[in-house]
Request: fold
Amino acid sequence: AMECLGLVLWEAQRQKRMPDTDAYLDCLNRL
Reply:
């Protein structure tokens, strides 16, 4: 789950916007 969180936070930083909770949950569902 930590890799999902890291990925989502990294994406948010890269795009200068809020973390995408939908993407995070989607990532968790695929684990």
Remarks:
- The CA atoms of residues 12 and 18 lie 6 Å apart.
- The mean pLDDT is 95.
- DSSP finds two helices and no strands in the chain.
